[in-house]
Amino acid sequence: MENIQKRQPVNTEKSREKENNSSISKESNQSLSKKGNQSLSKERNQSILKEGDQSISTLDVFLEKTGFTPVGLLGVILLLIMPFIPPFNQEYLLRWLIYAAFIAAMSVGFDFTAGYINIVNFGYAAVMGYGGYTSSILAINLGLTPWIGILIGGLNSAILGLIIGMISLRLRGIFAACLSWFFGLALMGLATKLVWLTRGPLGLRVPRMFATESNIPFYYLVIILLVAMYILCKWVVKSKIGLAFQAIGQNMDAARTSGINPVFYRVFNFTLSCALAGILGGFYAHYYAILTPEVMHTSKTVEVLAVAYIGGRGSLWGGAVIAFPFIFIMEIIRSTLSNLPGLNLIIYAMLLILVMIYYPGGFSYFFDTHIRKPKNKALRYFLNGRETSAS
Amino acid sequence: MIVLETKNLTKQFGGLTAVNAVSMTLYKGDVMGLIGPNGAGKTTFINAITGLNPPTSGDVIFFGENTTGLPPEKMCRKGISRTFQIPSPFPKMSAIESVMTATVFGNPPGTIKDPVAHSRKMLEFVEFPMSEDVISEQLNTVQLKRLDLARALASNPKVLFMDEMASGLSEGELLDIMKIIRKITGQGISILMVEHIMQLIMAVCNRLLCIQFGTKIAEGPKDEVANDPKVTKAYLGSNTDEKNKAEELVAEDN
């Protein structure tokens, strides 16, 4: 079966190449396991079937509902089997993977604001930490289970997002960004100074979510969070709300004279993206089992920002895809050059500057313009899903 | 039938009065030209009516309803839309998406059954010269003005404000715009246009409103206003003034 697939050289080779570029994998050919190949060919067969009868299959309906393209779905499948692929079944690499997936999910939430309503939420990490602290403190002081704590943390962050959204309403662009940044700094200051509650810089010892040493349950949890957040955000931006987001992000005056009420959409956007950050913060706390005010630092936001921007603003998936190779490269640099601390931050900055100057569209723009529209119909389906007219 | 009325509309920025107690009346089917020298307060007047920059005092009455100070999104839903002096596109959106924003959000929910078709119709109406999928930031000023107009029309307005739609257009483009303006009036939409090109004003307008230093100096049928000595003096320059100046110069020389 596999051999037959391999003997249709052009398409399969090509799609595999694409898949290497685009999906969430960064390992080289050898680790593209049997499973990966099989699901790939399955996709292909289905797509050919579809071209034939033109009807909408259940897969298409599923993809449309979830906002995934076949290649994206394949990426998710790959992520799900990742812990069993040789180099990644080691615990320390799994920890990297978890961190990468966490940053990926953060970048989805961040891009939901930065890429659509065009306001950079510089306090995003602080909002995340706020959610984490909420959940941790509830768990420590009241013995609340992390599962509910995380949701309360998300809710709490949502309220914070609502407040930031309301206060920054009259501000545009950079001013709103500054305001959210100051909010972040203030929150971090609170976390440092309220020693009786947060133990300040010493950090809170937080109960872990699963009472096991293994990283695997955490890995699946964060992947579920990533996928769920992506689907939620994608669903919102695909609706007419997304059109309003883009309009107020790109030209406030024209949006208002076109009948869009910016108050509702901006506050809604802030609330949702902060809620996502809060939930992720809860995960972070209950995974690393220690929470210090450091996680709320602006440099954490910048890490997310770098990933989201290099991935491509306004795409949601760009940052999520780039997070994996990016975090791995950073971790490798950090561990091999451990005598040069802070080098990774310089690399962030360099990369970010280079991308902003030479390729402001980021990876998603590159993908959309150079890879996304191949001539081959099956491949095209594989990369785009069923094509719909307009929007 | 009176469509839109302003009563003593005033807009102050700190100590500066940009629009000073301007009252005017716009009737159904009117194409009213708003003229005046640069900095007279024409755009400020439009901003004050459309809510982008609410007035300090005075009233705006739209179909008998006082709409003073309503935000632009509410004005848009009520049926007032506008184009901008400097075209104001959504840079990253395609043409059809830009128009779709106004179609979806500018009309009462549920009134437009097929937003894509409606938006397409608007682009055709303004004779948009490019493909509907072209990204706005790739368009030139003339094309952007068409797009802006299509966006303004997509919310099915009753009154349309056009801010210097024709500035920078060539002779041929001017004729096209005239044709489009006539088409818009044909739909029963009243127009208030700020314009400097007298040729266009005299061709399409039936009434004129002239503002100088934020104060109304004339309003009425176009020929009457155009020949009003105050207007000619303010806007087109005055012969007597020039003569006096020349005489003064000669006197100084001697």
- SS-based structural class of chain A? mainly alpha
Low confidence ranges of chain A: 1-54
CA-based gyration radius of chain B? 20 Å
Head-to-tail CA distance between termini of chain B: 60 Å
Indicate the mean pLDDT of chain A.
79
CATH architecture designation of chain A: Orthogonal Bundle
Judging from the principal axes of the Cα atoms, what is the shape of chain A?
globular
Q: Sheet bearing the most strands of chain B, described?
A: 6 strands, mixed
Write the layout of secondary structure elements.
The complex is a heterodimer of chains A (about 400) and B (about 250).
Chain A (H helix, E strand, L loop, with lengths): L1 H5 L2 H14 L11 H20 L4 H9 L3 H12 L9 H24 L9 H19 L3 H22 L5 H21 L1 H4 L5 E2 L10 H23 L1 H11 L1 H6 L4 H27 L1 E2 L6 H14 L5 H20 L6 H16 L3 H10 L5 H8 L7
Helix pairs in contact in A: 3-5, 3-19, 6-11, 6-14, 6-15, 6-16, 7-8, 7-9, 7-14, 8-14, 11-14, 12-14, 15-16, 15-17
Chain B lengths: L1 E12 L2 E12 L3 E5 L6 H9 L6 E6 L2 E2 L5 H7 L1 E3 L12 H12 L8 H11 L15 H14 L4 E5 L7 H16 L3 E5 L3 H7 L2 E6 L2 E7 H5 L2 H8 L2 H15 L1
Parallel strand pairs in B: 3-8, 3-9, 6-7, 7-8
Antiparallel strand pairs in B: 1-2, 1-4, 4-5, 9-10
GO molecular function, one term (chain A): branched-chain amino acid transmembrane transporter activity
Keywords (chain A): Cell membrane, Membrane, Transmembrane, Transmembrane helix
Subcellular location (chain A): Cell membrane
